[in-house]
Amino acid sequence: MQLRMRLCVAATVLGLLVQVSPALGQQPASPSDAQEAMVHLAQAVRKQIVTNTQYGVFDFIHFAIKGNTVILRGQASRPTLKSSLESSIKRIDGVKSVVNEIEVLPLSPNDDRIRSAVYAAIYGYGPLQRYTSNRGPGARMGNNSVARRAGGITNDPPFGWHAIHIIVKNGNVTLEGVVDNSGDLAMAGIRANMVSGVFSVDNQLQVAGKE
Known about the structure:
It is a single chain. This protein has helices at about 30-50, 80-90, 110-125, 145-150, 180-195, and strands at about 1-10, 10-20, 60-65, 70-75, 95-100, 105, 165-170, 170-180, 200-205, 205. It contains five helices and ten strands. It is globular and about 55 Å long. It folds into two domains: about 1-105, no CATH class; about 110-205, no CATH class. The chain is of the alpha/beta class.
Protein backbone atom coordinates (compact mmCIF):
# COMPACT_ATOMS: atom_id res chain seq x y z
CA MET A 1 0.00 0.00 0.00
CA GLN A 2 1.27 3.44 -0.83
CA LEU A 3 0.18 6.74 0.63
CA ARG A 4 0.99 10.00 -1.16
CA MET A 5 1.20 13.20 0.85
CA ARG A 6 2.22 16.80 0.26
CA LEU A 7 4.04 18.46 3.15
CA CYS A 8 5.26 22.04 3.42
CA VAL A 9 8.73 22.80 4.75
CA ALA A 10 8.99 26.58 5.27
CA ALA A 11 6.39 26.86 2.52
CA THR A 12 8.45 24.49 0.39
CA VAL A 13 6.58 21.65 -1.25
CA LEU A 14 7.92 18.24 -0.26
CA GLY A 15 7.09 15.10 -2.21
CA LEU A 16 6.59 12.21 0.17
CA LEU A 17 6.24 8.65 -1.07
CA VAL A 18 5.24 6.36 1.77
CA GLN A 19 5.41 2.59 1.53
CA VAL A 20 3.98 0.75 4.51
CA SER A 21 5.18 -2.83 5.04
CA PRO A 22 4.73 -4.70 8.35
CA ALA A 23 7.72 -6.43 9.87
CA LEU A 24 8.03 -10.16 9.29
CA GLY A 25 6.42 -12.30 11.95
CA GLN A 26 4.15 -9.52 13.15
CA GLN A 27 0.42 -9.18 12.73
CA PRO A 28 -0.17 -6.54 10.00
CA ALA A 29 -1.56 -3.33 11.39
CA SER A 30 -4.82 -2.00 10.09
CA PRO A 31 -4.51 0.42 7.16
CA SER A 32 -5.58 3.34 9.35
CA ASP A 33 -3.06 2.50 12.10
CA ALA A 34 -0.25 2.04 9.59
CA GLN A 35 -1.06 5.31 7.87
CA GLU A 36 -1.25 7.17 11.16
CA ALA A 37 2.14 5.81 12.21
CA MET A 38 3.62 6.84 8.87
CA VAL A 39 2.16 10.33 9.16
CA HIS A 40 3.72 10.73 12.61
CA LEU A 41 7.07 9.58 11.24
CA ALA A 42 6.80 12.01 8.32
CA GLN A 43 6.00 14.85 10.71
CA ALA A 44 9.04 13.97 12.83
CA VAL A 45 11.30 14.01 9.76
CA ARG A 46 9.80 17.30 8.62
CA LYS A 47 10.42 18.81 12.05
CA GLN A 48 14.09 17.88 11.91
CA ILE A 49 14.39 19.69 8.57
CA VAL A 50 12.53 22.89 9.41
CA THR A 51 14.17 23.29 12.82
CA ASN A 52 17.70 22.71 11.57
CA THR A 53 19.46 26.04 12.04
CA GLN A 54 21.45 25.54 8.83
CA TYR A 55 18.42 25.04 6.58
CA GLY A 56 17.55 28.23 4.76
CA VAL A 57 16.49 30.07 1.66
CA PHE A 58 19.37 28.70 -0.46
CA ASP A 59 18.55 25.06 0.31
CA PHE A 60 15.71 22.79 -0.78
CA ILE A 61 15.27 19.46 0.97
CA HIS A 62 12.61 16.83 0.35
CA PHE A 63 12.35 13.24 1.44
CA ALA A 64 10.71 9.86 0.94
CA ILE A 65 9.87 7.16 3.44
CA LYS A 66 9.96 3.49 2.45
CA GLY A 67 9.25 1.18 5.32
CA ASN A 68 11.65 2.22 8.07
CA THR A 69 14.08 3.95 5.71
CA VAL A 70 14.16 7.69 5.13
CA ILE A 71 15.56 8.89 1.80
CA LEU A 72 16.81 12.47 1.81
CA ARG A 73 16.98 14.36 -1.47
CA GLY A 74 17.37 17.93 -2.66
CA GLN A 75 20.13 20.52 -2.64
CA ALA A 76 22.19 21.98 0.18
CA SER A 77 24.33 25.07 -0.21
CA ARG A 78 26.64 23.89 2.60
CA PRO A 79 27.93 20.35 3.23
CA THR A 80 27.31 20.64 6.97
CA LEU A 81 23.55 20.72 6.35
CA LYS A 82 23.69 17.34 4.59
CA SER A 83 25.54 15.63 7.41
CA SER A 84 23.56 17.39 10.13
CA LEU A 85 20.20 16.29 8.76
CA GLU A 86 21.31 12.71 8.34
CA SER A 87 22.57 12.59 11.91
CA SER A 88 19.41 14.07 13.45
CA ILE A 89 16.98 11.97 11.40
CA LYS A 90 18.81 8.74 12.29
CA ARG A 91 17.89 9.41 15.93
CA ILE A 92 14.13 9.51 15.25
CA ASP A 93 12.26 6.64 16.85
CA GLY A 94 11.17 4.23 14.13
CA VAL A 95 13.91 5.13 11.65
CA LYS A 96 16.26 2.22 10.97
CA SER A 97 18.33 3.73 8.18
CA VAL A 98 18.84 6.94 6.22
CA VAL A 99 19.80 7.09 2.56
CA ASN A 100 21.35 10.51 2.08
CA GLU A 101 21.04 11.62 -1.55
CA ILE A 102 21.23 15.35 -0.83
CA GLU A 103 23.36 17.14 -3.41
CA VAL A 104 25.89 19.59 -2.00
CA LEU A 105 26.06 22.56 -4.36
CA PRO A 106 29.53 23.54 -5.62
CA LEU A 107 31.49 26.23 -3.84
CA SER A 108 31.55 29.17 -6.24
CA PRO A 109 32.06 32.90 -5.61
CA ASN A 110 30.00 33.61 -8.72
CA ASP A 111 27.10 31.46 -7.50
CA ASP A 112 27.39 33.21 -4.15
CA ARG A 113 27.07 36.58 -5.87
CA ILE A 114 24.05 35.34 -7.82
CA ARG A 115 22.36 34.10 -4.65
CA SER A 116 22.69 37.52 -3.10
CA ALA A 117 21.51 39.32 -6.23
CA VAL A 118 18.51 37.04 -6.84
CA TYR A 119 17.56 37.29 -3.18
CA ALA A 120 17.58 41.08 -3.44
CA ALA A 121 15.68 41.02 -6.75
CA ILE A 122 12.88 38.85 -5.37
CA TYR A 123 12.58 39.84 -1.73
CA GLY A 124 13.44 43.48 -2.35
CA TYR A 125 10.39 43.74 -4.62
CA GLY A 126 7.40 45.05 -2.67
CA PRO A 127 4.65 42.66 -3.84
CA LEU A 128 6.85 39.65 -3.04
CA GLN A 129 8.03 40.76 0.39
CA ARG A 130 5.12 39.00 2.07
CA TYR A 131 6.84 35.71 1.25
CA THR A 132 9.53 36.31 3.85
CA SER A 133 9.66 37.24 7.52
CA ASN A 134 12.97 38.99 6.84
CA ARG A 135 11.71 42.53 6.38
CA GLY A 136 12.93 45.94 7.39
CA PRO A 137 16.15 47.91 6.79
CA GLY A 138 18.85 45.76 5.22
CA ALA A 139 16.49 42.90 4.38
CA ARG A 140 16.79 43.46 0.64
CA MET A 141 20.40 42.33 0.70
CA GLY A 142 19.83 39.93 3.55
CA ASN A 143 21.36 42.25 6.16
CA ASN A 144 24.83 43.16 4.91
CA SER A 145 26.77 41.80 7.89
CA VAL A 146 30.53 41.74 8.34
CA ALA A 147 30.50 37.95 8.08
CA ARG A 148 28.65 38.08 4.78
CA ARG A 149 30.99 40.67 3.32
CA ALA A 150 33.94 38.49 4.33
CA GLY A 151 32.67 35.04 3.44
CA GLY A 152 29.72 35.51 1.15
CA ILE A 153 25.99 35.11 1.61
CA THR A 154 26.11 31.29 1.46
CA ASN A 155 28.07 31.08 4.70
CA ASP A 156 25.86 33.70 6.34
CA PRO A 157 22.39 33.33 4.79
CA PRO A 158 19.43 35.56 5.68
CA PHE A 159 17.46 34.59 8.75
CA GLY A 160 13.75 33.95 8.89
CA TRP A 161 11.08 32.17 6.94
CA HIS A 162 11.15 32.24 3.13
CA ALA A 163 8.42 30.81 0.92
CA ILE A 164 10.57 31.07 -2.22
CA HIS A 165 13.81 29.10 -2.09
CA ILE A 166 16.66 30.08 -4.40
CA ILE A 167 18.89 27.24 -5.62
CA VAL A 168 21.96 28.26 -7.61
CA LYS A 169 24.29 25.86 -9.39
CA ASN A 170 26.94 26.98 -11.88
CA GLY A 171 25.04 30.15 -12.71
CA ASN A 172 21.71 28.38 -13.17
CA VAL A 173 18.86 29.30 -10.83
CA THR A 174 15.97 27.11 -9.71
CA LEU A 175 13.10 28.59 -7.72
CA GLU A 176 11.30 26.21 -5.35
CA GLY A 177 8.44 26.75 -2.95
CA VAL A 178 4.82 27.85 -2.80
CA VAL A 179 3.20 31.18 -3.67
CA ASP A 180 -0.37 32.44 -3.51
CA ASN A 181 -1.12 32.90 -7.19
CA SER A 182 0.18 32.50 -10.75
CA GLY A 183 1.00 36.20 -10.98
CA ASP A 184 3.47 36.00 -8.11
CA LEU A 185 4.90 32.80 -9.60
CA ALA A 186 5.57 34.55 -12.88
CA MET A 187 6.91 37.70 -11.23
CA ALA A 188 9.44 35.76 -9.14
CA GLY A 189 10.76 34.15 -12.30
CA ILE A 190 10.96 37.48 -14.09
CA ARG A 191 12.83 39.09 -11.19
CA ALA A 192 15.35 36.23 -11.09
CA ASN A 193 15.89 36.47 -14.86
CA MET A 194 16.77 40.15 -14.48
CA VAL A 195 19.93 39.37 -12.51
CA SER A 196 23.16 39.81 -14.44
CA GLY A 197 25.16 36.62 -14.93
CA VAL A 198 22.24 34.22 -14.53
CA PHE A 199 22.39 31.62 -17.31
CA SER A 200 18.91 30.17 -16.84
CA VAL A 201 15.96 30.21 -14.46
CA ASP A 202 13.93 27.06 -13.84
CA ASN A 203 10.77 28.22 -12.10
CA GLN A 204 9.47 25.25 -10.09
CA LEU A 205 7.28 27.34 -7.79
CA GLN A 206 3.83 25.96 -7.02
CA VAL A 207 0.59 27.84 -6.52
CA ALA A 208 -1.07 27.05 -3.19
CA GLY A 209 -4.05 24.75 -3.62
CA LYS A 210 -3.00 23.55 -7.06
CA GLU A 211 -1.11 20.37 -7.97
